[in-house]
């Protein structure tokens, strides 16, 4: 399948040893609201913490209508609990940006690394993207550490890139090429 074009319009279900990633839906609002309303989890997100479950429903409905971003809800195989979210967006042919969030109760469990690793596998090995990248706040230490552990290279520092609920923020741009990806 090495000559195949990426299939950005598909949103397949996939899994790892401990997790199942399935296409996100508005029905996930109740399970994901604890993450989207968590001040600490949302500090580095592009929007403020959600004040109500209705706000989370609207957010997920908007995401479901997006033709750019694909979203997945991460569930633990052992008990079916929602662990977090994954997202990918084709930003140019064969190049994808990724995003992720894990609920606070699962911080430090290795589940973020496992889920993001499987997303990268999907993008590189199945969909044949040539580059995956992520945009983080320089002060988001856990996310920056995760990307480093996964083999990403910090490629840029964009000053004053984002105007967010916590003010104007810089962005670190992280990149990973298919030939650099080793699990």
UniProtKB/TrEMBL annotation:
Domain N-acetyltransferase: 19-179
Pfam families listed in its UniProt record: Acetyltransf_3
Name the record gives this protein: GNAT family N-acetyltransferase
Organism whose genome encodes this protein: Sphingomonas donggukensis
């Amino acid at each position: 399948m090495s000559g195949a074009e990426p299939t950005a319009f598909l949103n397949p279900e996939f899994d790892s040893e401990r997790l199942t990633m399935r296409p996100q839906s508005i029905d996930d609002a109740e399970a994901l609201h604890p993450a989207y309303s968590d001040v600490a989890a949302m500090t580095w997100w592009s929007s403020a913490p959600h004040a109500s479950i209705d706000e989370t429903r609207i957010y997920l409905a908007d995401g479901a209508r997006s033709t750019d971003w694909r979203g997945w809800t991460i569930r633990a195989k052992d008990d079916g609990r929602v662990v977090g979210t994954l997202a990918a967006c084709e930003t140019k042919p064969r190049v994808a940006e990724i995003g992720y969030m894990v609920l606070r109760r699962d911080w430090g469990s290795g589940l973020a690394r496992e889920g993001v690793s499987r997303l990268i596998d999907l993008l590189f090995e199945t969909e044949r993207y040539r580059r995956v990248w992520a945009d983080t706040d320089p002060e988001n230490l856990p996310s920056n550490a995760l990307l480093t552990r996964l083999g990403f290279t910090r490629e840029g520092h964009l000053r004053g890139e984002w105007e967010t609920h916590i003010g104007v923020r810089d962005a670190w741009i992280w990149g990973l090429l298919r030939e650099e990806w080793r699990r």
